[in-house]
Amino acid sequence: MCGIVGAVSTRNIVPVLVQGLERLEYRGYDSCGVAVYAQDAEQSGLRRARSTSRVAELAAQVAPGAGSAGVTGNLGIAHTRWATHGAPSVSNAHPHFSHGAGLDAHQRPGRIALVHNGIIENHDELRAALKAKAYVFVSQTDTEVIAHLVDSLYDGDLFEAVQAAVSQLHGAYAIAVFCKDEPHRLVGARAGSPLILGVGKDGQEHFLASDAMALAGVTDQIVYLDEGDMVDVQLGKYWLIDKTRKAVAPAQRPVKTVLAHSGAAELGPYRHYMQKEIFEQPRAIADTLEGVEGIVPELFDLQMNHKPGANAARVFAEIDSVLILACGTSYYSGCTAKYWLESIAKVPTQVEVASEYRYRESVPNPKTLVVTITQSGETADTLAALRHAQSLGMHHTLTICNVATSAMVRECSLAYVTRAGVEIGVASTKAFTTQLAGLFLLTLALTQAKGRLSESEEQRHLKAMRHLPAALQAVLALEPQIISWSEDFAQKENALFLGRGLHYPIAMEGALKLKEITYIHAEAYAAGELKHGPLALVTSEMPVVTVAPNDALLEKLKSNLHEVRARGGVLYVLADADTRIESGEGMHVIRMPEHYGELSPLLHVVPLQLLAYHAACARGTDVDKPRNLAKSVTVE
After folding, report:
1. Which residue in the list 276, 338, 513, 631 is annotated as catalytic?
2. pTM of structure
3. Which of 75-84, 458-467, 476-485 has the lowest mean pLDDT?
4. Residues whose CB is less than 8 angstroms from the CB of residue 512 and which lie 6 or more positions away in sequence, other chains included
5. Is 179 known to be catalytic?
6. Is 335 considered catalytic here?
7. Model confidence over 306-333: pLDDT tens digits?
């Protein structure tokens, strides 16, 4: 989603702001901009550059050259925007300036500059009230409303003006704002969207950002703001207040060393980040499972997040069901885990789309373990669903998350932090497989807590998990065969994906990947549902991808394949070696290196990722930044 970078410094901060935006490009955006307090009095203290192109074009705008001094300043903010209110355009791009009564909004900016992530739900009412005060609006955004609101409340103290303004906002926001009348002060606030403080060296500069990656190479000293926090950032000092508007002691928001290495964003020999991240999966799985010598509840007692009474061994013994909350790809990993939790641990499990869960009447059970799954740990819908579950009295909470310092990890009692590393491609790959690894560990830990895991079974599962990196390498070696398939898919506009049992969610994930980055319409079905409607769609122009492991449902699945062939459909089958499914007319088969039992989903999803990737390359789409999508969805 949108990205924020802000800084106050003794040096020209524009290169840092632009570099920060470059670090945040992986989140997805359709416009970008930078604003500074300039020393040139002719510019009224505020200067700005905005673009609906890439950050590289913005960088060219602000760089000195062709007789121009460029844009420079010691105080500034920058932003990458993903459109919510108002189409992608320069006038809707951030930063926004206030435009008060009597000012020509296009020629003379006011005194407030502001960037914003999130959605303000009451912007229409605020806009009407501000128009009545003669404020001039030049965009369709809800963000411009905040800039004018702060201006209307400003009386010489920016922090007080922002504090008064956010008390009137309904919705989600992370904001960074400065005023030309206080040229060494930057104010930030967050509610529902992430915001961090970066502490510079020797007090000579401090930073605000939506993501620690934005500050990679600038500072690794990070303070994570809690929900409702506000921060006043000045040269040589900063201070915070919490949602109750009380001062926050340093011990309550400690400075943490966060190594968000910019090297993670280097492509190396790969064509795209998505390809790089697909091939990083063996290492990501190995890192995620590093240190797991046995199945013990303490794996989920994350020390940095330990809360009174939040002991995994006690919680696992007490709970009698599991509720999984997630969105998108994470939802499909939860659907896969449901099969494991019920077949292995024998624990009743429900999986809910997080964005739907809190808007329906449900029956709370205080003995439920609420499990959230999220790559970023900042997904707005999943955080809101977690808080809703807690409000219903379900306080046993656990997250499977890739970011140890995220809001989700801080708000859940228990956690397992995957170690996928930074995932830049919008279409998730290594985050998904590492989530599955974490969820399988959770399954085994719950099985053990319920007295259902024998020592021999524990050792069998651990052996299989340790072999996963090598097994994944063997699957990646299938890439040339998958490229051949992708050439066929690149010519199509529709596709079906089929799976049964444990592999039905993998078929759903495969369809999602294809539609995300190729823009081919793809649907997934449990193969047994084929004759209940989808079979009507089958023609020679509708490729049918089938996940076919050698499991208890194989013979049923073979019947489904015959149904497709009888209607002239063309099949693309990922089959285990011993399934006796052979290639032939209308039947394309890729043989998986080995059958992997309960962990088979981690292997079968990789060819589907590669199929989507290479089909997208063949179609010439923007693989890493697909249209209309963002990496981290921090608004509802």
Report:
1. 631
2. 0.78
3. 75-84
4. 328, 329, 332, 522, 524
5. no
6. no
7. 455 568 999 999 999 999 999 999 999 9
